[in-house]
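Section 3.1 - Work completed
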Amino acid sequence: MDFVLKKELENSNLIFIDLITTKNPKELKKKLNSGEEFIVARGGSDDINRTTLESKRTDILLGPEFNRERDFIHFRNSGLNQVLCRLAKKNEITIGFSFSDLMNSKNKETVLGRMMQNVFLCRKFKVKMVIGSFASKENEIKNRSELISFGNIIGMNGKEVKDASNFKKKEAKIKILK
């Protein structure tokens, strides 16, 4: 299964998701407490990432590595740390890695390095991961083998790639549009 962000791109192999995007933590809390069954929130600032991971209603935090300032001297500013990973594990929130976000970014090498660090942190703290194209245009949709290669590039091992490409959390609640 793969995820798309536009309803027009739906078909039997693609899951349409409504992505929550905001820069205000208070507005994010209101959206997280709405009646949605499957919640995917866009990461960004430290406040947004933390607010998203503190909510038990969130299913996926997508791209915590985006909208970051400069990297630090000794490590990357990847949007995740040990505290946020423990929150994600405790609240059973999956960290999402978007192929189309990587391809559309200006600094691909920086984003790729941040994704690699996030994979390392997720592995260390046993946080679930998901990879997908998360496409908003038809030409951004990638097949399963390309997504598996993407998972290998960002540092996932074979079992992690297999688990990340077969997302099964709350599958009964996901509306698969046909």
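Second construct:
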Amino acid sequence: MTSDGLPSVNADPGDNLGTEPTESALLGHAQSRQMPGIMILDDGDALVLANGRSSEMLREVAAHADDDLEPRHIPRVLAGLLPQLRSRLRERHDTTTAALLTVDLCVRACHMSGPHGRHLLLVLERVQRRDAVAANIEKFALSPRECDVVMLVLYGYSNRRIADQLVLTEYTIEDHLKRVFAKIGVKSRTALAAKILGWRDS
């Protein structure tokens, strides 16, 4: 019990809690989840606040892209996502998501408003590679079957192997790829992988 008469959540392990749920039970798996990276940017995309976890993630992103990360700056590959995130937020009022697939990161964004104006909140979290790829594919408005084909291309499958896997003909796979190339704006499987995985142009 606290001094103001409210029950304390930090009960001693030896206390007799009866059938009341413990703090650990209430938190469940949240206790074992790693803290996400959290960043706040101003309207000019300058970094205002960041926690330690986000700093670690930003260094990893920069190292993967051979980017020299200066203090209070964000890597170019993440900066390149900001216009897309801001554009999506203009069309909706909650949150939007993008993926940094080269380092298996999911980036969630939302606007925050206060006495000092509006800021952009970014939450960086680890994701499984397949989930990250699927999230990135979504923005290209592909059909479910086209998404299946793209996923197998990213695994390095040939057209024949994709056809066997999906129980289709090679001609059908070629047709799917032609439509995928047109939607994504590429002309080769390598360029397709680069676009989906966020690789830089060589």
